[in-house]
């Protein structure tokens, strides 16, 4: 019932809402496009999993189209230039890892960090979304759990060989997520998404993923602490 009270306060047609949506919607569209590219690239690094990774990539393309429809539905033009810049650092780190065949780092960036970011953002968005976007996002978030699961399973199966690289990649990339969350705080708030809730959901999903892969509670706490420095 509280959700209902929150949603009715939002005016999806107001200029304030649409202005914030032009950036958040663009971030999501760009994120889905990059996720598509990342899974296609991962398929080339992991020929044994090529079929499954290609399937995941196609889901990301569908997500992108779904979110483009959400923007159209609200008559919002997504600010794609802003969104490209927004993903620049994670994009570059993924490309650098790819060039060195560092599959573990690529998986940490896309299948753990970006997927947990998506899971947190979409779960927080669903109760406050307009009805059209809510339906789309509910379908999308189910897929994101499958993507996260792919990364978890692969890294769990290669845990001992991956551990050091995962810790280094975590240290390099987790602070970037914090920066990204801070950058979007004001716009997210206009959409009734609180930064504190986003952080909480992200850390729960990310911590659970690290535990599933094989890290101890102490290791997870140390790895999580790198987010806090920026
Ligand atoms: O795997 C995926 O589909 C991920 C690309 C999508 C990431 C979406 C990032 C969402 C951040 C939104 C920030 C809103 C507060
Ligand atoms: Fe997606
Ligand atoms: Fe995904
Ligand atoms: Fe705040």
Unreliable stretches, pLDDT < 50, 5 or more residues? none
Bound molecules: (1S,2S)-2-nonylcyclopropanecarboxylic acid, fe (iii) ion
Structural class: mainly alpha
Spatial shape: globular
Q: Give the oligomeric state.
A: single chain
Classify the helix fraction into a percent range: over 70%
Termini separation (Å)? 36 Å
Radius of gyration: 17 Å
| Number of extended strands | 0
The biggest sheet amounts to:
none
Q: Beta-strand percentage?
A: under 5%
Count helical runs. Answer: 10
H/E topology pattern = HHHHHHHHHH
Averaged pLDDT: 95
Key phrases:
10 helices, 83% helix, binds fe (iii) ion, binds (1S,2S)-2-nonylcyclopropanecarboxylic acid, 0% strand, 230 residues, single chain, mainly alpha
Write the layout of secondary structure elements.
Blueprint: H1 2-9, H2 15-45, H3 50-73, H4 80-86, H5 88-99, H6 103-125, H7 131-157, H8 159-190, H9 195-213, H10 217-225
Helix pairs in contact: 2-3, 2-4, 2-6, 2-8, 3-7, 5-6, 6-7, 6-8, 6-9, 7-9, 8-9, 9-10
The structure holds (1S,2S)-2-nonylcyclopropanecarboxylic acid and fe (iii) ion (FE) (3 copies).
One fe (iii) ion is lined by residues 185, 195.
Could you characterize the architecture of this molecule?
The chain has 230 residues and is mainly alpha-helical. Helix content is 83%, strand content 0%. It has helices spanning 2-9, 15-45, 50-73, 80-86, 88-99, 103-125, 131-157, 159-190, 195-213, 217-225. α6 (103-125) runs antiparallel to α7 and α7 packs parallel to α9 (195-213). The mean pLDDT is 95. One fe (iii) ion (FE) binds at residues 32, 35, 60, 63, 118, 140, 144.
């Amino acid at each position: 019932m509280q959700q209902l009270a929150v949603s009715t306060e939002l005016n999806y047609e107001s200029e304030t809402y649409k202005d914030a949506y032009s950036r958040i919607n663009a971030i999501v569209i760009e994120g889905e496009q990059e996720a598509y590219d990342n899974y296609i690239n991962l398929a080339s690094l992991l020929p044994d999993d090529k079929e499954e990774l290609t399937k995941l990539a196609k889901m990301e393309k569908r997500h992108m189209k779904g979110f483009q429809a959400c923007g159209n539905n609200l008559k919002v033009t997504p600010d794609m230039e802003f969104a490209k810049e927004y993903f620049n650092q994670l994009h570059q780190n993924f490309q650098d890892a790819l060039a060195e065949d560092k599959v573990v780092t690529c998986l940490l960036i896309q299948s753990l960090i970006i997927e947990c970011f998506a899971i947190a953002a979409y779960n927080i968005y669903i109760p406050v979304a307009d009805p059209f976007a809510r339906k789309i996002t509910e379908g999308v978030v189910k897929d994101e759990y499958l993507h996260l699961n792919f990364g978890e399973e692969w890294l769990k199966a290669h845990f001992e060989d991956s551990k050091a690289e995962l810790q280094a990649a975590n240290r390099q990339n987790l602070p970037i997520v914090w920066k990204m969350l801070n950058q979007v705080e004001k716009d997210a708030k206009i959409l009734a998404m609180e930064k504190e809730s986003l952080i909480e959901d992200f850390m729960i999903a990310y911590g659970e993923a690290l535990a599933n892969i094989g890290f101890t509670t102490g290791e997870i706490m140390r790895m999580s602490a790198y987010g806090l420095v920026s």
